Amino acid sequence: xxxxxxxxxASVDEAVSLLAAHGPRAKILSGGTDILVQLREGLRExxxxxxxxxxxxxxxxxFDSARGLLLGAATPCYRIYEHEQVKRAYPALxxxxxxxGGWQIQTRASVGGNLCNSSPAADTIPxxxxxxxxxxxxxxxxxxxxxxxxxxxAPGKNVLGRGELLVALEFPPPVPRxxxxxxxxxxxxxxxxxxxxxxxxxxxxxxxxxxEEARIGLAAVAPTPLEATEVAAWLAGRPATPESFAEAGRMxxxxxxxxxxxxxxxEYRRHLVAxxxxxxxxxxxxxARGVG
Amino acid sequence: xTASAKPAASSSAPQYKVLGTxxxxxxxxxxxxxRAIYAADLHLPGMAYGRVIRSPxxxxxxxxxxxxxxxxxPGVLAVTSAADMPDLKNxxxxxxxxxxxxxxxxxxxxxxxxxxxxxHAVAAVAAVSPHVAEEAxxxxxIEYEPLPAVTWVLDAMKPNAxxxxxxxxxxxxxxxxDKPSNVSRHIHFEQGDVQRGFAQADVVIEREYRTxxxxxxxxEPHACTAxxxxxxHVTIWTATQGSFSCRQQVAELLELPVSRVTVVPCEIGGxxxxxxxIYLEPVAVLLSxxxxxxxxxxxxxxDVFEGTGPTPGSFVRVKLGATRDGKLVAxxxxxxxxxxxxxxxxxxxxxxxxxxxxxxxxxxxxxxDVCLNKPKTAAYRAPGATQAxxxxxxxxxxxxxxxxxxxIEFRLKNAAKEGTRRVDGPVYPRxxxxxxxxxxxxxxxxxxxxxxxxxxxxxxxxxxFNIGLKSSASASVNADGTVTLVEGSTDIxxxxxxxxxxxxxxxxxxxxxxRPQVADTDSVGYTDVTGGSRVTFATGxxxxxxxxxxxxxxxxxxxxxxxxxxxxxxxxxxxxxTDGRSITFKELAAKLHATGGPVVGRAAVDPEGPTxxxxxxxxxxxxxxxxxxxxxxxxxxxxxxxxxxxxSYVEGQMQGGTVQGIGWALNEEYWFDDRGQMRNASFxxxxxxxxxxxxxxxxxxxxxxxPDHPYGVRGVGETPIVPPxxxxxxxxxxxxxxxxxxxxxxxxxxxxxxxxAGKSS
Lengths: 292, 761
Ligand SMILES: Cc1cc2nc3c(=O)[nH]c(=O)nc-3n(C[C@H](O)[C@H](O)[C@H](O)COP(=O)(O)OP(=O)(O)OC[C@H]3O[C@@H](n4cnc5c(N)ncnc54)[C@H](O)[C@@H]3O)c2cc1C
What we know:
The complex is a heterodimer. By secondary structure, chain A is an alpha+beta fold. Chain A contains eleven helices and 14 strands. Chain A folds into three domains: about 5-50, Uridine Diphospho-n-acetylenolpyruvylglucosamine Reductase, domain 2, CATH 3.30.43; about 55-170, Uridine Diphospho-n-acetylenolpyruvylglucosamine Reductase, domain 3 (2-Layer Sandwich); about 180-290, 2-Layer Sandwich (Enolase-like, domain 1), CATH 3.30.390.50. Helix content of chain A is about 35%, strand content about 25%. A five-stranded antiparallel beta sheet of chain A has the order 4-5-10-6-7. A four-stranded antiparallel beta sheet of chain A has the order 11-12-13-14, sandwiched between helices. In chain A, strand 6 (about 135-140) and strand 7 form a beta hairpin. Chain A is globular and about 55 Å long. The mean pLDDT of chain A is about 95. By secondary structure, chain B is an alpha+beta fold. Chain B contains 19 helices and 32 strands. In chain B, helix 11 runs parallel beside helix 18 (about 725-735) and helix 17 packs across helix 18. Classes of the chains: A alpha+beta, B alpha+beta. At the A-B interface, helix 11 of A face helix 4 and helix 19 of B.
């Protein structure tokens, strides 16, 4: 590992100008649970490591049941599941935040870092897709916003341009009769990367028997996290029954494009997508009905 | 708390004061406060930092090594490669565990001409800081000519397989093959008349089993510091299981007299057999000789996976025949084990262990040691036995089921006992397998019904020899009545305490009154490796004899005080007595200076092994049919310890071995891509069990004293890794109706097997 400079920006503007000055050899440090490992193992190199945790906007967690949630990009995971209202309003996000590494990791690791690292297997991204999160980005040309579902472009790659950083994630306010769930499969019970993952969100009709609206995000079955729009559209108006969940699982399987690697075979991943989608839907519907 | 609070003792068990109690370990404070010095903690003035450059190819010829750019980097102090090693062609050394080809040993530390696995050490640099060394390593230009690689044992045996060595020939029954081969050795054992045996059988079952390479997975990566002093003396501080073995290996490789090398063993963070071979030490010595400074080398976790010994991947075929009433009559086994990059794997013990738990009158075993493009295999806890037991114990389970006999009952009917002749020749003395199986059958676990869908209970037995070998120890009596014990067995499993307890028992003093120390190779007599479950047995025996020596000398002092014949002084319960007079050990210790000076006891032993450790495991699992994931609901390990000197450490060994066996069974594997490159060389993707993956392992200690040890000790460290894969496979079968015959039984594989049987979604 080569020596590098360290700087801690105090504002978004300062961070943007430091990034602009150093170009691609500047690396942003949020919780550091990805970037420090990558620097140490020589997978990435940096001249400047730019800490963004001193920027108040980036460590914010503002929740209002009417306006929704504004989550700073560098806010550590534990603050999500320790916040009673947030945990209830965005249960799939809380599910994901609770399983990243162990609690030591969760006191540092951020959802923004998870998203910007842009691994196809990242645990929070399917939950971000399910909860319809929007990414607020700042850069040399000002600010812009992108749907979380469109953020990742390839393994380790995303829409951030030169000198840009992720400032915050914004989540729509919770709606009645909705529920969400993130489930992943790992061979062990902790300390593993998802072999496959599914994050789902559903809204039920007033009887609680029918799905009115759904969103589904899938992990580790394609070069980027996938938004299963076709499956979600199919679910709208369907009865909230095991048969619907199973069919949705089969549909999710059809759009998966997994690979074989040391974490699992393509065939197995395709199979898991169906299992996880089905199980996550059942749980999300349960949560929407106020059980489980 | 485990279930073993009370070992199942035999009726005439002797009464001990110290043995069987659970004193706090002598090295405990330093370990829990972080004060203990491990090899990577060592810092010496002027120390340089080395870095090993490793092969990116699984198999390649080294065309050239160009150090010029690295040497031009400021702060670089030395570079080395195999060119700096003496020519060791056709030199052999006896390292206590058989003959070792020194050319192979050397070429594993620094590649000679060819690299034989990804991660094979090729060259090294030393620099003023680890960061400079890392940068310099990137500047070393090595040109390779890649060659085809082979990583599966049966492929490596094919006549057209890529050949690793042109100087390795197949040795079979004393004959060498005429052409070089990846198969370095064929072993054959036979007893009785196998054909006739199978003819007597009512049921014959034959199956094939495959296992992946797995790593020992010790938490502490290899590390060492070497100093080539100006007077030519070499000192090495290292993490090793055997300081004398390390000394000899380094001395032989560098052609130095052993007296010119001092090995200082540091605390060791696990070894399980993997820290018996040397890797970094000779490289650090060469670098130190060149730069005149102490040089420290450490491995990363991926270096450890890619560059140090895994245990063999294997293919095993087992055929067993039994009569209708459940008597085994014939057995046949065919085993092919990875040797890794160089000959000399674990096939020998594999062949000896495959049928070691049973009395099989007619049996034949063939085994093959096969070179392929993986790291040179190293010992791993009962090396070679687990693969063999996975096969044999699975077939035994099928036989029991086919014959409608309870699996423990079936094992009891056929269990090896005193007088049973093993297929490789030895006849067992008094052993404890029957008692172990009886304890398993009587256990609360076995007698608690398991209900629920997708659940099943499995059982399997296991054996490991446990060796004897050489140990030395000495002890001096302090004026306050305590004793300082110096021994040479690096302490991996709490052996300082187990050895000290045996001295304390012999002297009739408290365990806390013995202060044990593990010394360097200049400060204690020759001692073989901490391996083969031998330390509590053999070094314990040395400590016992040291105790007798001290007792004899102390009795003479008492006789001097009492002006009587030393032969009339008796020693009982820590008190010296003669007619009407007595003096405690402590009181007498205070009078030594006035009665002739210090008392130092010493002993050097070389007891006959093996001590024969048998175990049986019971496991309950639940299988998720949708994902193939296996959850362990309950686990009980039963084992004959001979005598559990410190029951907590015996339980700890049983639990630790079991957990390693569970990892091997369910998830661990070297995952190679199609170019023979390991792709999961990290603890993230090489999936050892975490604390959340295993339940509390319940333990039942059985004590059938070893007649060849004064306290009956047998050694316990290795046996518990042997049964888990078979026990789990048998449990998965009972849960799902599907037999798995390949390790690991990972979720994708279990799911695929269930799906193929039409049992999964
Ligand atoms: C032991 C361990 C276990 C883990 N387990 C899991 C797991 O179960 N599931 C999982 O998904 N991940 C896991 N991870 C990976 C990691 O913890 C997560 O991806 C985490 O969310 C990353 O967040 P961070 O704040 O630490 O990111 P950092 O490491 O600080 O940053 C990650 C990447 O994003 C960039 N970045 C960070 N912030 C910004 C920003 N504001 N704008 C632009 N770019 C930015 C960085 O430059 C870097 O490239 C694990 C890691 C470890 C070490």
